[in-house]
Design goal:
The structure is a single chain. By secondary structure, this protein is mainly alpha-helical. About 90% of the residues lie in helices and about 0% in strands. The model has no long low-confidence stretch (mean pLDDT about 90).
């Protein structure tokens, strides 16, 4: 049965932290790109120069928000893939350990059989 506090698990907290880091990185990267484009627009476009400061800030913020969403999603998908791989490796290691244990038991039984026949 699932816990009522599933969002407070360690996995959820790690995923949340990864998404927050991705959002921050995306906001910075895309914010810098929109600032450069805004500067180019201001230098070369009379239309952009005619915009109010509020609308230019809105354009800048829109770029930052889109970038943070894209990067957070990208980081979350990478995190999920990494967790799946780690869990698969742990499961495979457990199966391999069980196999080795069973093999050792079989070898010990076979080693004990000739001694019993003597």
């Amino acid at each position: 049965m699932r816990s009522h506090k599933a969002l407070e698990s360690d996995d959820a907290k790690e995923a949340q932290g990864e998404a927050v880091r991705g959002a921050a990185v995306g906001a910075v990267k895309w914010g810098a790109a929109t600032a450069v484009l805004g500067g180019l627009g201001y230098v070369f476009s009379p239309l952009y120069r005619g915009l109010t400061i509020q609308f230019r800030v809105y354009i800048q913020m829109s770029g930052m928000i889109v970038g943070s969403m894209i990067e957070a999603d990208y980081r979350m998908r990478q995190y999920e893939q990494r967790v799946r791989i780690q869990r698969r490796l742990a499961r495979d290691r457990a199966v391999w350990a069980d196999y080795e244990k069973e093999l050792l038991e079989m070898e010990e039984e076979q080693a004990a059989l000739p001694q019993q026949k003597k």
